[in-house]
Amino acid sequence: MAPGTPTDSPQGEKTKNRRPKDTKFKQQKLPAWQPILTANTVLPAFFAIGVAFIPLGVALLVTSNNITEFVLDYTNCKNSQNPNETCAKFFENVNNTGLICRCEQEVELPEFKGQVYMYYGLTNFYQNHRRYVKSRDDNQLNGQSVGVSSLNTDCDPYRTVKGNDSEGYAPCGAIANSLFNDSYTMVFNNSVPVNLLKTGIAWVSDKSVKFNNPSNWDHMHKPPNWARPVWELDVNATSNNGYKNEDLIVWMRTAALPSFRKLYRRIDHSQTEFKDGLQAGTYKITIDYSYPVTAFQGTKSIILTTTSWLGGKNPFLGIAYLVVGSLCIILGVIFSVIQLKWGKRVGDFGKTFAVKKILIQNVPKSFCLKESFYQNQILGEK
Amino acid sequence: MVFLCQLLPVISSLTPLTTVIPLVAVLLVTAIKDAVDDFQRHKNDDIVNNRLSYVLRDGKLIEERWHKVMVGDIIKLNNNDFVAADLLLLSASEPNSLCYIETAELDGETNLKVKQAIDETAQLEDNHDLMSEFSAELLCEPPNNRLSKFEGKLTYNRKEYSLDNEKVLLRGCILRNTAWCYGLVIFAGRDTKLMMNSGKTKFKRTHIDRLMNLLIIGIFLFLVTMCLICTVACGVWESFIGYDFQAYLPWESFVPTSKETGSATIAVLVFLSYIIILNTVVPISLYVSVEIIRLVNSLWINWDVKLYYDKKDTPAKARTTTLNEELGQIEYIFSDKTGTLTQNIMTFNKCSINGKSYGDPMDELGNMLEISERTPKVDFSDNSYAEPSFEFYDKHLLEDIQSGVKETEAFFRNLALCHTVMPETKKDGRLEYQAQSPDEGALVSAARNFGFVFKSRTPSTITIEVNGETEIYELLCILDFNNVRKRMSVIVRKDGKITLYCKGADSIIFERLDPSCSQLKELTLSHLNEFAQTGLRTLCLAQKELQPDVYDKWKEKHQAASVTLDNRDDALDGVYEEIEKNMILVGATAIEDKLQDGVPDAIANLALAGIKIWVLTGDKQETAINIGYSCRLLTEEMEEPFIISAESCEEVQKELQTALDEIKKAKTSGRNDVGVIIANGGGGQAVYNGTNGHLPTQQEEYGDFALVINGHSLVYALKPELEGLFLELGCSCKAIICCRVTPLQKALVVDLVKRSKKSITLAIGDGANDVSMIKMAHIGVGISGQEGMQAVLASDYSMAQFRYLERLLLVHGRWSYLRMCKFLRYFFYKNFAFTLCHFWFAFFCGFSAQTLYDPYFISLYNVFYTSLPVLVLGMLDQDVNDDYSIRYPKLYTPGLQDALFNKRKFLWSVCEGVISSLILFFIPYGAFLYTHGVSGYDLADMQSFGTVVAAILVVATNLRCALDTSYWTGFNHFVMWGSIIYFFCFILAFYSEGIGYSYVGVALSVFSSANFWLCLLLTCTLLIVPVVAYRFYTSNINPTLSDKVRLRQRIKKTKSRSRDLNFRRQSTMRRSTRSMRSGYAFAHQEGFGELITSGINMRERAEDKHKEPVTLTKITRHDSTRSKPPPVEPNSNIVFVEHL
After folding, report:
1. What is the pLDDT of residues B544-558, one digit of tens each?
2. Does the beta carbon of B846 lie under 8 angstroms from any beta carbon of chain A?
3. Do B1051 and A374 touch (CB under 8 A)?
4. Across the interface, do B1036 and A262 touch by the CB < 8 Å criterion?
5. Where are the transmembrane segments (chain B) (predicted)?
6. Whole-angstrom distance, CA of residue A37 vs CA of residue B1032
């Protein structure tokens, strides 16, 4: 029963060991910044955001509009062998699966300044479907010696050759099997073929880290839809062959949305004719159409575009910035008006404050006398 | 369950790891916390269980722990020991095997009670050999919770003795003024009456817990709805698109090939998949986070130096760490009186002698001084009997005594003679008094300090020492106290002069005064009023000289009355009445039942906060009302309290109904002339006090009525048919005092309010008699630092003083509530914003349950990226500081109204979350659709897009948390900005080449694109601006009190940093103009007078063999037992017992 000993004796001090430490932390008195949303800070902030966003929006919009972009939807282009038939129709015939339907399109292009990229675009193509996304084996693509039996089961039904579990597909899975295999060539003025570069189109990190060729291709077969096995994708350049093939790498980076574009080729600007971009004029685009999409209401297109610091042509951000900036300005104005009106209703505010005097019973008089002072301060805040 | 689903690869869209990581973290933290909690609880229980008591085993006394005491053991108790079990008293040190016990722990009564052993067992005395051979058969009632009854039969030496409550010591009592006693254990452990009374320990959950469970069910339904939508949509998608898309993405082999059944099969599986990926709306980490926040908030309570009581070296302690936010929502406080509101110390404070009032210290000019530490005390050092603890500030009284003012001497002589106190000389020569009631002790000790020392008594004499001279009075008669008489007198003879000294309630004494002192009566009355208004207990003193013949005549009547068999008490009262008249008024005393420090302030402030306080006490009605006034629970402005003290169901109903009618009448007639009226208009809670009443009053239950109800009446009032009425009345009164209630009744009252009002209740008490209500209430607070531990052990919070309740509720409770509400609102927001992005994404991925984010992000989001800022917010946030929280008690009302987190607020958070998720998904969607990087590379791939949304999500939700934070300490800054920076760093590192994760290179590619940063800026602005606008609007146009006080706090801080913020109210005394109110209260029990005159409790014993044996009938009021003749002590003074 130590408690109750006199406070001033030294022993008493010793027994008082249960006293909590009087630190700022334990007493919840840490120095702190206590922001308050006042007119002084909020209104200027609104105007500032408005003032910053509107010019930014304009700049973005201008940038986006300066990008030259050409889109050609060739889903239903005519079969050059049989002008009465579209290529889409051609592939409705099951016998034609695996064949190529060539179609040629003459297009008038505006002038493209700077580096020009060629994309293929697909719509309604669900590269982001769960079963599609997981249907791959990253270890296999990385060149690790993955035995057929240890291939990712998510690759099914494109994992092992039907009826023979010891023979696998390289690469396995639905993504690889559905590799986009249309090809384009482009000729300027019916005479100058435009050189298309098929490297430098994939992410550097993908090409250097994620995709590597295995030491051998034992027990590996080409995926069913493919015309050639993976080790023959680009027989001319070993660095672009096998899993290192950039078309494959680009395709394997699945798109987030069912409508997407993927980089197909870069225009070779070392050609003297195209050193500043693409000249305006007539181009003949030849498409080797072998990828049917109409069965699931998909479309295909070929896109030529330049880039800016923002990337591709997309007015969305510019417009959004303009809208948000304007909204902030409008909000700022509305609140300023309210603020002014409210400023006239000081009486109310003062009253609630005055009323609180009653709450603080027995507070020294000097404190209460300060009330008017505070009211003025509050007014001053506005 | 979700976890198990994830193990099925068919439906799982996530690796099992994504659920395992948070699950393991959560389980680990919970386990650690529970272990710590359990350990602490055991530690406390062990303290009680391991208390030592002396048990007789094999003829030897050995120390045994409490929990090893068994039925049938014989225990020895020493003075001031706690009784360890329910005991049958075998023998005791005091004469006639009497022992005194204090039952404050049990029933709150402070006076001592006498217990007496059966004679046959008393012979065992402290002889261990005899004790160990003691063999008897004891037949008793089964364990029950009736404290005032015991029935049993002891068969000893082939004789039967009936046992009743007078022979039983109950666990929880304390042995007082008795050197030792032995007892036989009847009930031990849980069977003891105390434990039977303490009710079951229930697992307490807070209001918010229950709400949260409801919300979780709601969220789960919402989750199922979303999944159903996805399922149906998936079925549709698969049959229209997916079926045709099979050229590139064939259905799984087990899916039927037909279009309809195949789609349906896939859809059903997708339902489960969506349950898995959307289950993050019901975050596992929620409960753990809540627990952590509560734990930390409990630590703040433990660490608060302002809740630390220096004198007893007792800090406050949160014994339960799960109830903190409920402290911010208390609407009813049920408080014990003795030991909780009061210190259980009586001090002689003031007096009025012969029309002169003493007690208020004056300076030379006659101005009243405030009593403080520095006020000079009267110096009693001349008096060798003075006690150092006695404090008196008015030196005039001592001066008057020293100058020999006759009336003053008479006054103190009265005090020194008219009482039933027993003196005891300690071994070191110190004189100590054993008073049956603390009031009486205070009066006698006051007389002693002023030089009228009561030294010793025998059954027929009283020895006092006045200024060094011994005076021996012959004690002729004690006219004992009882509740009806409300007075006691002694008749003494000295030098042939017979004098009657009387003290009692003013109203009673004034009726019996001689007409000659009417002038003095007026003066004294005005003094009494003054005393009573300051909450002091007053007594009047009177005296009268008796002519010997008058006395002799009266004595005969008295003799006759005392041998009457029927209605002896009434007959005696009548006789007493005859002689106690025409007395001369001497003066009046004022005793302060010392309140604990700061109690009135705390109560006033809590009442201002809208908390209703009920006092439940085992004490008497007068005492309770008196304390009610002195602690300002009852105020002078109030109507006279309604007193319900009927003894039958009908009468109670009638009284309750009458009271209720009166209140209604007063209200309808618009008599809102005084008191606080609360206007609850919307969010602004302003308090208006005034007579004009021009403000709308929606809540008028704050009338100025008070209710006092008695234990007997409470029995009926708590019956199902009356409880509604009682509750209605109780809630229309501002203050309720229930007196003479049993521990169980306390619990029943709490339970009634808890059940019917749906409000949060808090019970506070210090003794074992409060355990039941402490356990029953939502929150139980125990006063610690006292000797008893029972209340503390049953409590959820313990602290040393009642006044700390103010800080506990208004500061800690309010903060905890605020923090918890902020936390929950934000947490739900955060998880909805996070999870629903998956739902929007479903529309673009063919409802295939593809996750938008990296699976690792999903598992880390709640634990690592966004939890810390909001946890710190939940630990440290404060809207206004503690000083302001106490100064503006109205800040507490949002908690009472449940305003900060309820279903509406929750829905609001959910809506905000849903809208945020829309913005979070569609802004990047718009910005990244068909875009590519500067060098033509793909940017709109799954991994990049997911990372973009994830990064924006982390930044935006953390900024949102920043917006909610109103108290930015270094910790907040650190975790807030730290979380964001950590996310970016972690992603960069984790997606780098070295790790070899499939997201390799994504972070670099995303973070190097301007598109991403523009998106981030835009989305965050879009998410933050509306919230800022809304908050700015409400805080400026319709500010809450909190907003205003905050603003004020800041102005104050910037304008006068040096100003002292300490505006605590100083004075507890309030003068008022209300008319007379009796301050009479006396915690006294009749019966001691007879003990004294019969000499039973005297040590010095008369040689009175020739007299017939003294019967104990007068003590026990039972004729069953007889005491044997008192032992003879050869050296004792020869004093004959004046036997009745």
Report:
1. 888 888 888 888 888
2. yes
3. yes
4. no
5. 6-32, 214-243, 263-288, 827-849, 855-876, 906-930, 942-962, 974-991, 1011-1033
6. 6
Per-residue CA distances from A204 to A56, B605, B932, B938 (Å): 31, 70, 15, 11
In angstroms, the CA B1064 to CA A362 distance is 8
| Cα nearest neighbour of B966 on chain A | A34
Please identify every residue of B annotated as catalytic: 336
Helix (H/G/I), strand (E/B), else coil: B289: helix
- pLDDT tens digit sequence for B124-174: 777 888 888 888 888 888 888 777 778 888 888 888 888 888 888 888 788
Subunit contact B1029:A210, Cβ cutoff 8 A: no
Q: Does B785 contact A at CB distance below 8 Å?
A: yes
Contact B738, B674 (CB under 8 A): no
A29, A355, A361 ranked by CB distance to B1065: nearest: A361
State the pLDDT at residue A301. Answer: 94
Whole-model pTM? 0.80
Instruction: Tell me if A128 and B942 make a contact (CB, 8 A cut-off).
Output: yes
Residue type, A349: F
SS3 of B964, please? helix
Structure tokens at A264: 């197909």
Is residue B701 scored above 50 in pLDDT?
no
Name chain A contacts of B311, Cβ cutoff 8 Å: 3-4, 7
- Determine the angle formed by the axes of helices B207-237 and B903-928, rounding to 10 degrees: 40
Residue B948 neighbours by CB under 8 Å, 6+ apart:
B924, B928, B1006, B1012, B1015
Q: Which tens digit of pLDDT belongs to each residue from A261-280?
A: 999 999 999 988 888 889 99
- CB distance A262 to B938 below 8 Å: yes
The strand ranges marked E within A67-193 are: 69-73, 101-109, 112-113, 116-123, 168-169, 183-188, 192-193
Q: Which one-letter amino acid corresponds to residue B517?
A: C
Provide the terminal-to-terminal Cα distance of chain B, rounded to the nearest Å: 83
Name the phi and psi angles at B76, rounded to 5. Answer: -105, 130
Q: A192-193 and A183-188 as β-strands: parallel, antiparallel, unpaired?
A: antiparallel
Residues 6+ apart with CB under 8 A from B1088: B420, B436, B480
pLDDT of residue A16: 58
Assess contact for B518 and B582: CB atoms under 8 A. no
Percent of chain B at pLDDT > 90 equals 20
Strand B461-466 to strand B797-799: parallel, antiparallel, or no bridges (unpaired)? Answer: unpaired
Tokens 């206007």 sit at which residue? B679
Other beta carbons within 10 angstroms of residue B310's beta carbon come to: 11
* Inter-chain touch A26–B1004, beta carbons under 8 Å: no
How close does chain A come to B483, measured CA to CA in Å?
A: 36
DSSP single-letter state for residue A116? E
More confident residue, B1126 or B582: B582
Provide, as residue numbers in chain B, all residues whose Cβ is less than 8 Å from the Cβ of A169. Answer: none
**Whether B116 contacts B166, CB under 8 Å:** yes
Give the DSSP per-residue string, B683-728: T--EEE--SS--S--SB----S-EEEEEHHHHHHHTSHHHHHHHHH
Nearest to B998 by CA among A209, A153, A148, A143: A209
Residue A228 to chain B, least CA–CA distance (Å): 17
How many residues make up chain B in this entry? 1140
Q: Which of B938, B945, B963, B993 has the most A C-beta neighbours within 10 Å, making it the best mutation to test the interface with A?
A: B938
Neighbours of B515 (CB within 10 A): 7
Distance separating alpha carbons of residues B729 and B706, to the nearest angstrom: 9
B511 sits in the region (left: phi over 0; alpha: psi -120 to 50; else beta) called alpha
Interface-testing mutation among A46, A68, A316, with chain B (most B C-beta atoms within 10 A): A316
